[in-house]
């Protein structure tokens, strides 16, 4: 299979130098494995600078040939507004909870849209059906949606490398931006996050911003299913640990250490970024020396900062503040023969980075917020007996609780953690590290990518079967055999009419009435409405039509041209008063919700409640009622923003069977929610069953909206009228 990886940056920059950072390092090792299985890979991304138009063709050919990369060309101004602008002045700070650093600008968002569009065009040029497209990170939130519009059946995953924030933070972004971002993401078959918490925050955000619910992490939106889940990214454990054990590594480690052999090494390695908490770490080291003077001249702090986003002004001022702080600590504590901080403002090749890890006694990873943090993991599998001090705000802390976890805002706790780690007995360090290393070995970067692949495949397969169910209302497959009578059963809300905020507002509109009149004027056509509505509502709106009306999911039936309603089922109704009190308690608790009482059922509506509070209460209610419902004369069913408690033995499926004549007929059934699934399930096989809307269904076909039901009715009328006219 061919994999098209898409990320903002390519693993090699425009000048052929390798990119630094978690994404590039992590993915490179997975790709060698993927290729070794005989698969092909193309990596699409921005080369990091604008390439003049006349050189683009030659450059593309060269990059593809040498590195298997496909450049996306962005004009310098667009790249600047997109990357330095919306990506790094809006999304990056917001998603890392640095809300004061955020700028919200229509101009940069427009560039973000344009850049995503450029990426979509580049992918579209090389995409072939059967490829797996894997989009990475926050620069490309809109890309899955754009690609899904071009290729409805595309097989596509998205992985977010940074944290997804809580809804309260995410909502700070203007609605016109955030809605597009969420919709763009939902073009994916799978959206992966580093941790369970980020996944939960995303799902809650979907509910709060777009009113979209999920079923155990699966979201149905615009006739498409998207799976979400936590896939903590691993590292190439073997690569690091094998090299760390090698003779070559030991030699380099010794030579680096030659002049400081007796000093215990404290190390930190980060891209220079305000989220990484570098200044705070320096302050904590300062405090550590102040409070533990016996460690002066006995330790050294190797501070590795890899230059990053050097043209963003806030990064430049942060760099100055760090330089000053290093200078100040070295000035205060340093002597002619001892410097407390060895400051390295540059990246090291892998062959030197691992020996640095190996020489380390205390590894400080103290970001304010970090999606995962791979440095912590790389250190663990490379060290000899070094202790990890890890921020609890790094995604990695969920997997590495045996480290010393610290709050990065708490200087005192970091300083104490340094002392605890530097003085910790070797055996204890090794015991703790062994547990963590075992865990890391069981979830390498290869396992991580494979899991993502398989989960995406599963979601994409389901989506494909969804697509095959979707059908045009004008399709010939939905036309009857004109020699047989026609029996059509419609659900009402969500099928004949769209949902409204209050049930009494969802009334039949003139076009629907007109269509019914025409249908009924034709020979051999019978219509039934089987609804959860009560008798009065159906009587008021459809009482004059010669059709079957079935109210309250089958409790009451009024045949065509008959004045009286009769009961299709017998009821004891003993359970009702007790459950009514219970539902009323929920109504009091959840503003905007209300309870509807019918003859054979009770319905709790939460469409107008706060989506989060409504959904939580509905879950609680379902849970409680399901526990008492067995042998209690009622059963509970979840509908569209309602919970219905109904007399046992009733239901639309049974009701439909009772009113259907035993003749050989064309049977059509239309419905939109869980209560209609009863009908789809119980109908004889030749019946044509159509689900309106998203979510899984037993129906044979799917329409997008009630509007398509009306189109189908009109098409049927035309067809039958045409047949009648032919001599
Ligand atoms: C983002 C998220 C998430 C660093 N210095 C050198 C060097 N590195 C390599 C490390 C490591 C990577 O860069 C840094 O990865 P991190 O995970 O620590 O951080 P970000 O770059 O911010 O990455 C992060 C990650 O994406 C993956 O999803 O974990 O939370 O922010 O692999 O080894 N490599 C070499 N020399 C260096 O000097 N060779």
UniProtKB/TrEMBL annotation:
Q: Which residues cross the membrane?
A: none
Pfam families noted in UniProt? Glyco_transf_20 (PF00982), Trehalose_PPase (PF02358)
Q: Which GO terms describe its biological process?
A: trehalose biosynthetic process
GO molecular-function term, one example from the UniProt record: alpha,alpha-trehalose-phosphate synthase (UDP-forming) activity
Q: Which family does it belong to?
A: In the C-terminal section; belongs to the trehalose phosphatase family.
Q: Output a single Gene Ontology CC term carried by this record.
A: cytosol
Q: What is this protein called?
A: Bifunctional alpha,alpha-trehalose-phosphate synthase (UDP-forming)/trehalose-phosphatase
Q: Could you tell me which NCBIfam families the record lists for this protein?
A: HAD-SF-IIB, PRK14501.1, T6PP
